[in-house]
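Sequence, please.
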C-alpha cells in the first residue's frame, strides 16, 4: 500500500483544523505513520516464519500461530491508522461542497469555505467523535485479541492436530512489546487530543452563542 494518500489527506485536513487539531495531525504523521513505515513494519515482517514450536507435527505450528495471533499486530495497526484518519474526509468533503456551491451560484455564500462554523462545525465535531470512537474500539480490540498488551516469549499450545501440549516461541518479543506500548501510548494521546479539541470547540461556540444572545438582550 502507498501511504502517500493518507499523508495527503492529513495535510489537506490540516488547513481546516484548530491548533489542537494540527497537533493531532503531527502526532499521527510523525509518531504513528512514520514510525510504522520506518521501523514497526519490518519488525513484524517475518513473524510467521520466525514463530517456532518444539514439534514437527504437520499443521501444528500453523494452527498455534493462527490461535495466538488471529490478526497480525502490524496489520491491525495499519487498519487503525486508516480508520482513525478516514473521518477527516468528512471535513474535506464538506469544504469541497461549500466551494462547489459558491461556484454554482457564482457568488460569495460564506466568509470562508474552510471556516469552522454552522454545518461545517457539526461535521467537524462528528469527525472528532468518530476518530475518538475508532481509537477506543481498536484499543479494546488489541486488548481482547491478545489478552492484554504484552507479547509473551513462550506460549503453550494443545490445539489439534498437535498431539499434546507443545511450547511455541515468539521472535523478538521484547522489541515487539516496546512498539506495542508505543502504539497504545500514541493512541491514548490522540484520544486526549480529540477530546480536548471537542471540548474546546463546544465551549468556544457555546460562549459565542451566549454572548450573542446577551448582546441582543441588552440592545
Amino acid at each position: 500500500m502507498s501511504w502517500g494518500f493518507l499523508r495527503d489527506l492529513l495535510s489537506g485536513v490540516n488547513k481546516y483544523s484548530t491548533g489542537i487539531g494540527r497537533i493531532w495531525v503531527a502526532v499521527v504523521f510523525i509518531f504513528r505513520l512514520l514510525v510504522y513505515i520506518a521501523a514497526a513494519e519490518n519488525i513484524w515482517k517475518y513473524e510467521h516464519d520466525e514463530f517456532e514450536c518444539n514439534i514437527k507435527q504437520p499443521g501444528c505450528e500453523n494452527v498455534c500461530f493462527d490461535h495466538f495471533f488471529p490478526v497480525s499486530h502490524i496489520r491491525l495497526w495499519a487498519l487503525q491508522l486508516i480508520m482513525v484518519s478516514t473521518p477527516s474526509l468528512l471535513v474535506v468533503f464538506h469544504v469541497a461542497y461549500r466551494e462547489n456551491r459558491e461556484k454554482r451560484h457564482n457568488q460569495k455564500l460564506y466568509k470562508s469555505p474552510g471556516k469552522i462554523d454552522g454545518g461545517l462545525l457539526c461535521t467537524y465535531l462528528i469527525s472528532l467523535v468518530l476518530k475518538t470512537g475508532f481509537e477506543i474500539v481498536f484499543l479494546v480490540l488489541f486488548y481482547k485479541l491478545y489478552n492484554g498488551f504484552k507479547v509473551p516469549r513462550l506460549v503453550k499450545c494443545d490445539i489439534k492436530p498437535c498431539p499434546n501440549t507443545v511450547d511455541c516461541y515468539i521472535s523478538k518479543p521484547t522489541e515487539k512489546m516496546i512498539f506495542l506500548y508505543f502504539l497504545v501510548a500514541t493512541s491514548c494521546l490522540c484520544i486526549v487530543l480529540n477530546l480536548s479539541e471537542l471540548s474546546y470547540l463546544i465551549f468556544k461556540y457555546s460562549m459565542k452563542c451566549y454572548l450573542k444572545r446577551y448582546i441582543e438582550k441588552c440592545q
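Residues 109 and 219 are 28 Å apart (CA to CA).
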